[in-house]
Amino acid sequence: MDMDLKGGDLKNGDSNGRDLNAALTSRCAAFRRFLSRFDHRPGASRAADRPASLPVRAMLLGLLSSRRQAHTRRLWARWLEPVMLRDPVLLSVADPLPGCIRVLDTAGWWPALSRRMDDLSATVQNRLDNRLAEGALDRVLASPEMVDWAEVLRDRSLAVLDALRTDPTALAQFLEEANSHRMRAASTLAIPGGVAALRPLDGTDVDTLTAALRLSDGWRTLGGRAPDMEIDELLACVRGALSNDSVPPEAMALFAVAGLYTRRDPLLGAALRALLPLPLVDAAAAWLTAHSEETDGGASDLPVLGGSPAYGSDRGLRDLFEAARRSGQSLSAPPAERLASPLAGMVDASSTPGGR
């Protein structure tokens, strides 16, 4: 399966997909300018020009969208895009990562979910195909009609997930299907340690997916992806959302830990724990600290990634670190009982603003 890193698909690119996405955006913009010439050719009337230009334009539109298969999955995955992680290193982590959603996970979730939605997926795909005859994929996905369909897909996904979580047998079958699709997609990727190192999706991952879909409406106002943000930008985003109550704290917790897993800086984890004293942030920061410390002279499991370093250069981070230390939120792992339910109060937060 050849999948693009953008919007729930996986193709070759850097760990965050930013270089690839920038290149694709530039190429698509140039291609759209080229397409516009078929609508307005100087020296020819639109009536006379249309019979010759429309077939060519349709062919070019097909080429523009031909590498963007599984469009319905892409539409559905846009809900998760603000927190979706693309770093292949995270695929080989043996422990469950609290609140972590990797792009590869959607390759398993969507096929298993869509076959439990009756004919909804086919209906949306047909509407997408019809609209793609009129414009390029990115524009179609952002159209009001597709935004409405995305909402329907999210609501139906939550209904399916809620039902599965009350039926252990059905949940086990669902996970078996999701893992089968995910493993098939993983076989085309360069995963550290190979596909054998890939931890199967389990009930904890179902809870994470459910919480993310339920809270995802709140991320619309944030204007970006947490994994793409520098440390200062992420902290400013979290501070701003909390200060003006624009995003529920539970939604910001999922957003924040996505940035934390990308930067993998324990000091950032301490700062986020001071800003968002919620079980999920606590668990993610504690896990990161435990796997970043040097033990017995060994190197850390997860090196800190590039970007603005937290150590020594950010006064705000140091102040937050000190606040966390003074409040008793140490950098060491909290007791096991505090990590038992990092998504407590989030999975079933149907009354949360922006939730379902």
Question: Would you write up a description of this structure?
Answer:
The chain is 56% helix and 1% strand. It is mainly alpha-helical and 356 residues long. Strands 1-2 form a two-stranded parallel sheet. α7 (144-164) runs antiparallel to α9 (203-215) and α12 packs across α14.
- Main sheet attributes: strand count, strand direction, barrel closure: 2 strands, parallel
Uncertain parts: 1-7, 10-22, 44-50, 65-69, 294-300, 306-314, 327-340, 350-356
Helix content: 55-70%
Order of helices and strands: HHHEEHHHHHHHHHHHH
**Rg over C-alpha atoms, rounded to the nearest angstrom:** 22 Å
How much of the sequence is in beta strands?
Answer: under 5%
Helix-and-strand structural type: mainly alpha
- Structural domain count: 2
Number of helices: 15
Properties at a glance:
single chain; 356 residues; mainly alpha; 2 domains; two-stranded parallel sheet; 15 helices; 2 strands; 1% strand; disordered N terminus; disordered C terminus
